Structures are given as C-alpha cells and as structure tokens.
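Progress against Task 2.4 (sequence-to-structure conversion) is shown through the following example record, which the project officer requested during the mid-term review.
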Amino acid sequence: MISSYQRGLRDRLLAAPVVPAPEPWRPVFGAYTANGHPPCAAVGGLLGIGFAVHPESGRDLVMVVSHDGHGLFDAVTGERIARDRDPDVEDGTPDAAADLTCPGLGPVAGTRVHIAGVYGGGLHLGTGDGWTLAVETPEWPEERVLLEHGGRFYSTPHEEGWWHVFHSTWSTFRTAGFSPTGRTLAVATSSDLTLWTRDGDGPTAR
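Structure tokens generated for the chain above:
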C-alpha cells in the first residue's frame, strides 16, 4: 500500500509527457521527433557506456561496450570516431576488471575508461551548476528519466523545474548520467544511445 501523497506523486509523473530538454541542452543525433522524443544512435546489444575526454579538442567522448565490441562517439557531433569489433577476451566487458573499466580506443587508446551499465557502476547524477538527474519507475519495468534544474519534481510544475526527457518503453534501461565535465547527458538502453550536449566549458559534475 502507498499513501495518498505517494499516489499523487506517482500520478503526477505518469501524466507528464516526454518533452525536449530545456536550453542549453540540445540532442546530439539530430532533431526531436514529433512527439518530443530525442533521436538516438542504434547500438544492438549495448551493455554499458563510459566517458572520456579527447586529449586534443577537450570534447567529451562516449565509449560504448556491446555484444558487437567497443565504439567511441564524439559527444558534440555524434560521430562514431573509433570502433573495435573484436576486443581481447579479457577486456571485452568491464566485469573482468576490479574497477569496471575497459581499454580506451582511438584518441584515448592507452587509457582505461570506467563503464556503467549491466555489470554495475554509475554515472554522475548532478553538475556543479545545479542540473540533476533522476530515474523513476512508476510503472515497472519502464524507466523515466527526469532532468531537473532550479526546482524539484516534488514542488514545481512539469517543464518549470523538471523535464521528463526520456521514457524507456522499447528496450531495457542500462544507465543514465552526466559526463564528468558536466557538458554531456547520456541515456543508454540495450538497443541505443541517446545524448544531449551543451556548448561552452561546463562545470565539473558531482
């Protein structure tokens, strides 16, 4: 049994449609769909993701680990800049490492990247300038991702302090969070990767 207050919060969340993330966030992989859903990159068998920084441009990079190998995306343009379809068995998935890391590739080869997803781990859930992220499941097993700033789901109207930006209805949710720089927001499911970015030098995440 849940209280009437809890039921009200649940109903409020269920009534909130998916909407575009507010400025300065913009979707990386193209324009929003007609129903407000963000575009994504298809990654079949996705297991987890992690963040790195390009050593020359300083841009956020997103590493994807899947059943088909490893990939590296530019988090500003959405371009896949590196791919390893046949990683070494001992480094194919992060569970082989005590710190849940996989070897970097492309411009971050020679480093280790922390991966969050089916094997555990996690991403940053807040930024230094007040953006926070919450993952709610009012109707299991469908996760809803809420982006918040300057308010809270409990006390402010939808689209005035919090935004329902992603609803996992077609695939299994893996992870969601900000990059350590605070400039990228990512949501990963078992079939795709969704990214938002904001221009300029963002504050460090927490």
